[in-house]
Specification:
The chain is α/β, with parallel strands linked by helices and about 350 residues long. The protein has helices spanning about 10-20, 60-70, 95-100, 105-120, 125-130, 135-160, 165-170, 195-205, 230-235, 315-330, 340, 350-360; strands spanning about 1-5, 25-30, 40-45, 45-50, 55-60, 75, 80-85, 90, 125, 175, 190, 210, 225-230, 245-255, 265, 275-280, 290-300, 310, 335. The strands form five sheets. Strands 8-7-15-16-17-14-18 form a seven-stranded mixed sheet. The protein has a five-stranded parallel sheet with strand order 12-2-1-13-19, with helices on one face. A hairpin with an 8-residue loop joins strand 15 and strand 16 (about 275-280). Bound molecules: uridine-5'-diphosphate. Uridine-5'-diphosphate binds near residues 150 and 269.
Length: about 350
């Protein structure tokens, strides 16, 4: 059985390994000159830099964690994000620590009590849910968080307001009624020591796997089964039109000093045109007398000009995706997966879980 996998990111690599471990032959190709897709990283001046923006592995799925742990050792990094709000650097997601930093004590205490009475401790509340609460203090809080954290950031990121995009998107960063300052609460979190590229290299290091880079898919290629992790519309030559995506432009700067900012990621929801700045040496505690940061500027995806990063979830795109999915169901031995193949805003762990399920079902 010869499997051809198109796309050498985390989805393609996971599938390749699972099939190879079953004794099947795999050829995995990518148009890029490197493996690892958008989790590709490289070393510069002793610092592991994520070429396509900051990536933090986190999951509650033990099966996924165990799978990936076969190919790396973990640096137990716990992600903390800060945001510049009203001139102060505060914890994001908005939590009880943020509340006490941005408001006078008496007001913060009143609001905290209301939050605890209405929701309880260590509970996550999406901002669009909080806005529905019929209480003067909670209304005030919801409006504050909506305007200061979500509105401008989401306009920059998606070109739309938070209530004009799928609620699951702003729901990724819910208000957290807790003193826990971390961005994620998952049981397993970390960064592979040596970086993601090295981890993917190990995933692909198998006698049954052949990797071909700088290699676009061509319909004359031979296979018994095809796995497509590129965008599904591309596979069908855009027959029904293009699925839209958001893209990003990263401006990388190397500074000749040790530290630039006080957290790995600082969000700028109210100021500037960038959404966030990532400082890479934090992730693996890399020691260097220099530091490397990236300024992140969201933009529309334009075919041939930039990369696909984020599928855009709405009714129109769901309908278009369904049309392509229907076409794919008529095909024997062709499978679609990954953020682009499934047109889903997967985190790394969800992409891996999807491939584990797919491989099991073959
Ligand atoms: N978001 C926001 N302000 C923030 C952080 C997030 O408005 O400070 C919203 C924004 O719409 C963003 C979404 O929440 O696209 C999801 O954020 P996340 O950090 O999960 O995005 P990713 O890291 O996947 O780009």
């Amino acid at each position: 059985m010869l499997n051809l996998i198109v796309g050498c990111g985390i989805s393609g690599a996971t599938l390749a390994r699972l099939l190879a471990d079953k004794g099947e032959k795999v050829v995995i190709i990518d148009t890029k000159e490197h493996i690892a897709g958008n989790i590709y990283d490289y070393y510069d001046d002793g610092i592991c830099v994520h070429k396509y923006g900051t990536h933090i592995f986190h999951t509650n799925n033990k099966q996924v964690w165990d799978f990936v742990s076969n190919f790396c050792q973990w640096y137990p990094y716990q992600h903390k994000v800060r945001g510049l709000i009203d001139g102060q650097i505060v914890p994001i997601p908005f939590n009880l620590n943020t509340l006490h930093t941005v408001f006078p004590e008496s007001l913060a205490n009143t609001i905290e009590q209301k939050l605890l009475d209405n929701f309880g401790l260590n509970v996550k509340v999406p901002i669009l849910e909080l806005r529905k609460k019929d209480d003067k203090d909670l209304q005030f809080l919801a409006q504050y968080i909506y305007e200061k954290i979500f509105l401008e950031y989401t306009l920059k990121q998606w070109g739309k307001k938070p209530d004009e995009i799928d609620p699951s998107v702003s729901g990724r960063v819910p208000v957290y009624i807790s003193r826990d300052d971390r961005y994620f609460q998952d049981k397993y979190q970390g960064i592979p020591i040596g970086g993601y590229t090295k981890m993917v290299e190990k995933i692909l290091d198998h006698l049954n796997i052949t990797v071909k880079l700088n290699t676009p898919f061509d319909k004359s290629m031979e296979y018994d089964r095809l796995f497509w992790t590129g965008s599904i519309d591309e596979f069908f030559d855009y027959k029904y039109g293009e699925l839209p995506y958001r893209s990003e432009r990263f401006e990388f700067i190397k500074y000749p000093f040790i530290k630039f900012q006080d957290a790995a990621v600082i969000n700028y929801p109210c100021n500037y045109d960038w959404t966030r700045i990532g400082e890479y040496k934090y992730f693996l505690n890399d020691q260097s007398d220099k530091t490397i940061v990236s300024y992140e500027y969201p933009e529309a995806f334009e075919n041939g000009k930039n990369e696909r990063y984020y599928p855009i979830a709405n009714e129109e795109t769901a309908e278009l995706y369904q049309k392509y999915l229907l076409l794919s169901q008529d095909m024997k031995n062709v499978y679609f997966c990954g953020r682009l193949g499934d047109y889903k805003y997967y985190d790394m762990d969800k992409a891996i879980a999807r491939c584990i399920d797919l491989a099991k079902g073959l």
